[in-house]
Amino acid sequence: MKNIFLITKREYLTQVKKKSFVILTLLAPVLMVAFGALIAFMFKANESSNTFNVVDKSGLFLGNLKSDKAVKYVFVPRENERALTSTLKDMTGIEGLLIIPELKDNNFEDLEKNSKLLLNKKIGFDTKSKVAADLSKVIKKEKIKTLGISETELANLDKGFQLNTQNVVDNNKGDSDLDFGVKSGLSMVLMYAVFMFIIIYGVRVMRSVLEEKNNRVVEIIISSVKPFELMMGKILGVTLVAVTQFSIWITMSVIGALFLNTGFSAMQKQMPGGEQSAEMLQKFDIKQTAMEVSHILLDMNFPLIIFVFIVFFLLGYIFYSSMYAAIGSAVDNETETQQFTLFAIIPLMLGMYGSFTIMNNPEGPLGFWLSIIPFTSPVAMIARIPFGVPAWQIALSMILLVISTLLMIFLAAKIYRVGILMYGNKASAKELWKWIRS
């Protein structure tokens, strides 16, 4: 244990003292925010306003077809159709000519078939869909008039049925759509956190092992400690590095949220209307929704969720990090790692993408088996836990994962013991099996 502690300490301090670690840890949240802002700016920069001349022979759309920032409609006399059509190619500031034929005998199908939009440039799919939707709205209103149905009556016909559900097993609590949405959101956040943690820091373990192997430093270290102690020290050291990094990011996020909240409150008072604007924002539905979300979160069994998250998080990380450490010891360069890392990535991806079905059916057979099988349970069980999981399933999954983690450490240690001192010998599946059996 003493050697494992010393190696863990050395690995942790070596990683934390690197300039790249300090810079990445401090700048990563800022870079993420900047990246999100850049993506939003790119979408905004690509937005454009299109202007279309409209020849309305039916007389239905004049005054009913409304312009907005994205699409502007300019109605022109029908007598100008021929002239506008012939000069459309050379027009600037006008992207097209919308020609709507006459409506005969309330035949809206013929109106739709014979309507056409002439263009002098390429427009986006969203613009085309918006023009079609705007026309559809006007036609829908006209159809309602011809049927003698008022808009109020139509709204009542289209009104959906609100079904109130109640789970008699779960303390007779209501199960609203918002409740399900909050649980799904929490499930996805926890699932992605575990998935990304295992992938990012598992690869870091592999690279650390590979770096020492290529530098021949490991030959000196192995003379003083056992290969198993070296492997476990590296895994635990990187784990502490990850915990440190996440703790800093969480602290920065909390401080940033408090700062933005204070700044937003001050900004409300300086807005036009001052206190009145702030009052309007306070009455907005977002506040009520936020309160309902907080109540739903507080009603959850958070001690159980936190316990399951920590246990499966750590066991899953050790399980896959052992695999990554074995891969790093068995190869000589990062290019060769690609053929083996698939064995670690594919089960995790199956667990993650398979867990999306849990949102629709948390107690279904796929959700059950994904949360029981050790290769996928670190992701799938965490995805299921916000919806509630029977205690016996949690216990069974945990026992299987503990046994599988110990077995994986044992197998990885056997590969590590031989592979860490092997040079120039390209490892294969057959070779790895020989090392395990030796």
Can you walk me through this structure?
The structure is a single chain. Helix 7 crosses helix 9, helix 12 (302-330) runs parallel beside helix 17 and helix 17 (391-419) packs across helix 18. This protein has 438 residues and is mainly α. A four-stranded mixed sheet has the order 2-1-3-4, with helices on both faces. A two-stranded antiparallel sheet has the order 5-6. It has helices at 2-16, 19-45, 81-87, 108-114, 125-147, 151-158, 177-214, 217-222, 227-270, 275-282, 285-299, 302-330, 334-354, 356-360, 365-372, 377-384, 391-419, 429-437, and strands at residues 50-56, 71-75, 96-100, 116-119, 166-167, 173-174. The protein starts with a helix and ends with a helix. Strand 5 (166-167) and strand 6 form a beta hairpin. The longest helix has 44 residues, at 227-270. The chain is elongated and about 95 Å long. It contains 18 helices and six strands.
The beta-strand count equals 6
Sheet with the most strands, sense and barrel status: 4 strands, mixed
The total of helices stands at: 18
Cα-to-Cα separation, first versus last residue: 25 Å
List the helices and strands in order: HHEEHEHEHHEEHHHHHHHHHHHH
Report the sheet-strand fraction: 5-15%
| Shape, per Cα inertia axes | elongated
Helix content percent band: over 70%
Low-confidence blocks of residues: 264-284
Q: Mean pLDDT score, rounded?
A: 77
Taking all Cα atoms into account, the compactness measure Rg is 31 Å
Major sheet: arrangement of strands:
2-1-3-4
> Strand pairing plus helix content: what structural class?
mainly alpha
